[in-house]
Amino acid sequence: MLFGLLLAVSIPWTWYESDLQFLAALPRLAMWMVLGLYFLTPWYKSLITDRQTLSSSWIVVPLVAAIALLVVTAAQPYKQLATGTEKSISSAPSTPDWRHYGNDVGGSRFAELDDISADNVAQLQEAWRFRTGVEEDFKMTPLQVNGLLYICGALNELIAVRDHDGSEVWRFKANAVAPGEHQYARTCRGLSYFEVPEPDQQLCDKRIITATVDARMIAVDALNGELCQDFGNNGEIDLRTGMGPHLPNQYYNTSPPLVADDVLVIGGLVLDSQDLGLPSGVVRAFDAITGDFVWAWDVGRPGDNTEPGPGEVYTPGTPNVWTIMSYDPELDLIYAPTGNANPDYWGGERRSFDDEWSSALVALSGATGEPAWKFQTVHHDVWDFDLPAQPVLVDIDRDGQTIPSVVVPTKRGDVFVLDRRDGSPAQPIEERPVPQGAAEGEYLSPTQPFSSLPNFHPFRHEKDMWGLTPLDQLLCRVEYKMMRYEGLFTPPTEKGSFFYPANFGGFNWGSVSVDADHGLMIAAPMMLGNRHLLVSPEQVAEAGPRAALLLGEDHPAVRMDPDAPLSDEQQANPSDPYDHTKIKFYGLTLPFMSRFYVPLLGGTQVPCFEPPWSQIAAIDLNTGELMWSRAPGSMKLSGPFGLRSGLSFQVGTPIRAGTLTTRGGLTFLSSTMDSSVRAFDVRTGEVRWHQDLPGSSQSTPMTYRSEANGKQYLVVTVPNPSWRYPRDPDTGKYIDSKSAKDGKGGYVIAYALGN
Question: In the predicted model, is pLDDT for residue 608 greater than 70?
Answer without folding.
Answer: yes
